[in-house]
Fold each of these.
Amino acid sequence: MKNERDTNGNCELIYETDGMCTVFEAVVMASSDDGKSPYVVLDRTAFFPGGGGQQCDTGIIEAGSITTEVEKVEIEDGEVRHYVKELIPEGTAVTGKLNAKVRYARMQNHGSEHLISGLIKSLYGYENVGFHMTDEEVVIDTGGPLTYEQLRIVEEKANEAVFENVPFTISFPTAEEAQNLDFRSKIDGLENVRLITVEGYDACACCAPHVYSTGQLGVIKIVSATPHRGGMRLIVTAGMDAYRDYVMLHEDNAKIMKDLSSPRNKTAEYVAELSGRLTSVKAENTELKKELSRMLTESITKQLKDEGGSSAEPFVIFTQALDPVGLRNLVNECTASSDRTICAFLGDDEKGFRYIFAVNAKVSESAGLKGLADDFCEKLSAKGGGSAVMVQGSVSSGRKDIEEFFAKVRKKA
Ligand SMILES: [Zn+2]
């Protein structure tokens, strides 16, 4: 099997056969500008121009005292163009250095995709029907649905493959040879196939660089699995990215452990218990509020009866205990049993107050509720509106100022 994938035969593509090479010596073959940016072409390169779901490499090219950044690498007109900030003359001997950490993390994620996709195909018969990589993870769409248990088996087997340290073998079968081989992505064609094989786990046509063996992938974790177009959308992370994900979750868990004083492996149990307790406390709270509302209404209507008084004389109530519906109910009960103008406030000095002014419809003409509300809004910069029997709104003044306003009203009455 021979590699016939070289672009125009002038550039040795190191990444095709050696994914772990991140520093290399080369000679500049062309130095030009294609309108997009200045670029150089080398006689050999480890910079991957992108493809197969994996982004192109970045890094630097050094030539003596000159160091120029490689911002992008693409194949154009059959040559690998390294788009650089500063041009280096033709014939110069250079050293290329990739952003090795980024390349390695991508290879860890990409390699894990081969294992996961290969295992899903061999165990459950589904193809990988969509694949892309972000900077921290791999997204795989499967051709059919998978249960949590099935995915757990796939994940466990993928990690077993890591510990078995199986080589990633790269081969270049002829179209005839490829015809008789079983591999994923065969549908993309039989010409110029670059086959990546992990014996016992996967064989797939792929153009991207890979690590030497599965041990270099590090831990593999399916972090999310959601139904997607009749199959599943899996988010997978491996190696350093999986380690960082573990650290993040560990720290999150440590915070919960501290708050709940829970053992390390029991946080979910403690949270479930807490959530159950919260539900019963909420139910208790609702009952208590109802009881409180009933008692408050009873006491205020009694007070109204005892005091008597005219409709023009406001009866002021402050409460923090009710919700807006409870406040409305209280006001309705009061106006039903008394002719006084009821001015009820819900809230406190910090958050401000909601208010309801209301009066019994039978005495609304003599009460002058609208006049009182307009005056209130003007003097205390309150907001609100309503009818001759009920006005509602909000005010941000403190309780003291509100009480002073009503003291003056009473004096005038
Ligand atoms: Zn691949």
Amino acid sequence: MPAIAYGPSGIPFSDYLNISIDKLYIMLDFNNTEIAFSAKSDGELQNAYRLFSVIGHPGLVKCAKVLTGVALKIHFPLSWAVKPTLYKQFVGGETLQDCVPIINHLQKFNVKTTLDYSAESEQTPDGIQATFEETIRSIDFAKDNPNLAYAVFKPSTITTDEILAKASERPNEMTADDRFHFNAFRERFMALCTRAYDNNVRVLVDAEDYCFQEAIDRLTDEAMRLFNKKRAIVFATLQMYRHDRMPYLRRILDDATANGYIAGVKFVRGAYMEAERERATRMGYPDPICPTKQATDENFDAAVRFTVEHLDRFEMFMGTHNEESNYKLARLLDERGIARGDSRVFFAQLLGMSDNISFNLAREGYNVTKYVPYASVRDVLPYLLRRAEENTSVAGQTGRELRMLKIEIARRRKA
Ligand SMILES: Cc1cc2nc3c(=O)[nH]c(=O)nc-3n(C[C@H](O)[C@H](O)[C@H](O)COP(=O)(O)OP(=O)(O)OC[C@H]3O[C@@H](n4cnc5c(N)ncnc54)[C@H](O)[C@@H]3O)c2cc1C
């Protein structure tokens, strides 16, 4: 039986046959601040406004980064400053259990959660083991919980940077000791995917630095072949700022077709552009990043379109705060008669960012999930500083958040 496609407000698409797609899109409005911030109390709105006003100043963020580094080194307590501000805006809590209220709250607005254990502790054997065990717990926590859309892990948190870089860039130089450590990493990686498979939970493998990614891709491809026979369980992340990702996506499709599995793909633009360019220049290899923002955008659009066109072999997760990308995918689904609630396609944003996109999409019946990081204040600080920096450096992001918050605060006052 063909899937029923739903239009705005859950009305079957067939009822809109005499309305043009363009007219329908007037109804998906990311500027609707009432819906965007429906999950936030007045106090939370004011907090968010103050926070984005501060992190909009690059100088302040740089200063905070230096001070935080010093404070961490001398074990100076930071909770009092971080918890009511950055942590409150961007983090779900310290433990899985702490995140239950936010999971339930998001679900009231039809937004699902993806819990992300974001501790970036030192890559010591104890730290690695602790992260591995917590990730297993997060996969168990997602079992049979319809409010949790995916589990996720960052491969570099279950091994060391040295091993990932060597296995990716100089595998011929690996010593017996390196191979021993790489095999231990591989076992942890596969154990997480096995647990996800046993629990029927989809698991996203985050993408990282270019110099680590080759080894991560190899393991992810192998895991997809093993665990994605009936449905996509393991998802590879493709950073579309890399100009070699379209060929990789085509190879994934060929492999999935040849080996009879459903490929899971997560698309992002990529978070490490400046560092990648700097490293490529320093080490003397070609820049792996698209030459311009427009080229990245086109690459991103091409990958999303290609995947939607081959949805018989893919499930996809699109993580972006770019309004145009979200509009484009929403429109593409409707144009192709793919149901907005089709579980093969998810839109995603980070907790505390771009609520105007998440809540308006969810309201119109699309599948939406928020990445909800959790960890202790100390462990999650690198993640928080990246968010602060991202909001400073991603052109327009902070300005947009502030503009939206201001409109909503004024609207509520008037109401
Ligand atoms: C749910 C979710 C999960 C994520 N997971 C990951 C992950 O696993 N790995 C990861 O690396 N990132 C991840 N990110 C971050 C993501 O890669 C982006 O850094 C971030 O979302 C900003 O991109 P955008 O599409 O939201 O916004 P936009 O503002 O449209 O795009 C900004 C991005 O465009 C690219 N860009 C900017 N200027 C240029 C230029 N001059 N030339 C070429 N490209 C340029 C860069 O990638 C930059 O980050 C995730 C984001 C979300 C929302």
Amino acid sequence: MHAPSAGPRAAATIDAILAAASDETRETLRVLGELLGNEPTTAISPTQFATRHLGVDSTQLAATKYVGPTTSLAVLGHLLRLELDRHAPQVVIGSPGDGQPPTWSQLDVGAGEPLPVPGRMIVFFPAGTLADAPLCILINDRHWEREFTILSAAAAKEAAERLLADFRGRMKSSLNPLRGRVLEARVDDGSLRIGVSPGLAAERAGLMLPGPLWAEVDVFLASATTRRDLLRSLGLGTNRGLLVAGPPGVGKTHLVRVIAAELAGSYTTILADANSMRHTIADLYAESDTFGPTLVVLDDIDLVLGHRDGSGHNSSLADFLSALDGVRQREDILTVATTNDPGSLDPAAQRSNRFDTVLTLPMPDAACRARILERHLGPLGLAINFTDVAEALEAASGADVKEVIRRTVLEHGESFTQDQLLDIADSGRWQAAVDRGRYLAPPPPRRRSRAKGVDA
Ligand SMILES: Nc1ncnc2c1ncn2[C@@H]1O[C@H](COP(=O)(O)OP(=O)(O)O)[C@@H](O)[C@H]1O
Ligand SMILES: [Mg+2]
């Protein structure tokens, strides 16, 4: 005896039941199927959702579309969420199509939890909520079609356009939780991601530079602050590029962080890492449109740009230059780049109409080195003559001086003598790795006699 196989028999039975079933029974079975985890079969397309709620047929439907980079979309999602909350009892949320349910994404705002923001969904806003006319907003953050689209009756297209412009304006206002913050750009999965930078409180007081250099920095900052409106009203433009050059360890990164910290609040800073400079520079400048006045920091561009190769081709340089040229048309975008070796930069990147100001940070002189020593060791109240130690640390960069101090504190704790400090400087133990020929001056043949040491 062979029992008929279960599959075909069950199928035949369901077919038979369905054929004989009333509409009501079929509907009940469908709902049961959904409850048991089948894909919903009722999800309608955004167009169907919109025509249904707006009460127009599809030939009367108008789409007002914005296509933007990831972070822009997430910020728009946040703004959409504010409207969802505000009109909660009246709005209707629908599927983004393809049988998918509405989904939420996240917007990284630094401290605390990321904000949940609409990722993929369509929302119906009745007349009198977002505009006089009823509208639907479709948001879709899938990376191949990132869009924020307002669907309306053709007759309400103008209102939809006004609303879109309004949303884009709000992105540049304090409603954008990223506005005025210090952000970091990196590449993830081939696309640019922008997140909030974990605090980097860099202060002027921590960076010892010759006075005239600070004056130059102030002139640069004035184009973003005190002189901004005047420049603008005179049609002189506020868009400036600053190139900070100098050998490794002289405080270039520290300086751009000071600039970012001083502009925080009024300017959004985007710190670009090497990958984002190399692969997504155009996207990066496109994202900067999301934040109102923006400072783009390109640290160590020489690592990324360098010279054109033999064939005269350097795609990241080409992208970089065209991004920089493109952005010059825009108000309120500042670019600050740093390089260890301006000579290695292609001359095209240095041309003065790309960077209006080139600032070269020198190796610290003895007075600067003494001030660095004093800043870090002063609080310990040791019997150390900072001027003498600074003299001995000839040819040391600011970073070198800090490393010597760090190593000494690691070895000796909070109490040590001037000679112990100098021994560590001489020993080279403070160098984590031999670094492109940067050494302290060769140990002088005990030029500093112990007798002279204040600790003797
Ligand atoms: N002139 C200086 N005064 C105080 N600290 C300095 C100075 N130059 C460098 N440093 C310190 O050395 C470290 C490395 O500096 P960084 O800005 O990264 O150098 P760069 O980017 O030029 O290689 C930082 O901790 C910085 O604060
Ligand atoms: Mg640096």
